[in-house]
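The data are quoted verbatim for reference:
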Amino acid sequence: MSGYSLPISNHLKMLALAFSMFTFKAWGITSLTAAIGLSVIGLPTAIYENPFFVRMTPVRAQDYVIWIMSSVLAGLIVGSHFVASSTSGDGKIVSGGVLSVLAVGCPTCNKLVVLLLGTTGALTFFAPLQLYIGIGSVLLLGWTLLLRAKALTDTCSVSQVTAQQT
C-alpha cells in the first residue's frame, strides 16, 4: 500500500510528527516565509491597498482564503527544509505559488489574460475559473507539504532504526 492512499487520520498523524520535529529556527523561518508569501502574492494582486498596484475589481472572500492558505502552506514547506534537507516537492511549491497569484489577482489587471480573452472574456471566462485555480494551488501546496512530511518522518524512522542498531 503506497503512502499516499492512507486514510486522512494517518496523514494528520504524519503531519503532526513532522511538525513536532520543527525547531525554534524552523518555526521562525516558517513564519518569515509565510509573511513574505503574503507580501509577494498580495502586493501585485493588490489584495491590500498599496502605492504600486491598483485593483480594478473588488477582492472576493475566496481571494483572502486562497492568499492566506497559500502563504501558510508555503511557509510550512520552506520551514520543513530547515528540519532535514530534501528536494522532495521543490517544483510543486513554485507551481503552487504561481497558481496562487493567478487565482487571487484581478482578472482585468492580468495583461496576458486580457490579451488572450479581452476584458469581457477575462470577466466572463477567467474570473469564474480563478476559484478552481486557487483550489488547485492549495491542493498542490498541500500535497507538497505531505511529501515533505513523509520525507521527514521517513528520515526520522531511518535514523531511529540506525540508532537502535548501534
